[in-house]
Amino acid sequence: EGMEKEISPDVAITDWHGKAWNRTKNYPAAHPNSRFCSPANQCPIIDPQWEAPEGVPIDAILFGGRRPAGVPLVYEAFDWEHGVFIGASMRSEATAAAEFKGKVIMHDPFAMRPFFGYNFGQYLEHWLSMNKKPGVQLPKIFHVNWFRKGDKGQFLWPGFGENVRVLDWILNRVENKPNTAAKTAIGYIPTSSALNLTGLDNIDLK
Q: For the Phosphoenolpyruvate carboxykinase C-terminal P-loop domain, which residue ranges apply (predicted)?
């Protein structure tokens, strides 16, 4: 979806209704909530310890939602409780996985609204109890928003592979590198020089 012009109009596939489809059709071939899967063990750079039964350290947790306005590209929580608050108070534009239709901004705690398997109050208590365990080393918590739009409805961030630039900043924060973040009312945000924007035009972090 969105890459139809890269294939020939003569190429035909079967859409999710079982009907013949090519790029001249005025509707998508895939279900709006479609996914695809690939075996994790085929990833050429997967960590050798990815299936370690002892578990592996987690250095960062990223929450993210679709917010066309009002939420920055990335920010870091002050501490664990603040990070849990960020996750619990998330709102996001509805997708095909949600019960809402259209461009509704809905409450979507932890980006998990359609998928909670037990009482949300207990779920929240579980998160808040994590830092009560002796000797625990908790990950930093971040919020990302790839979907902010400008006044003309255009996406302000290019997304896709360019998101690695945000991940690079997050890794620098995990490693506590100096001069990488400014403290604001909502959390820590990248300083003007901390986010690598080399090669990107028309990106204004302000």
A: 1-200
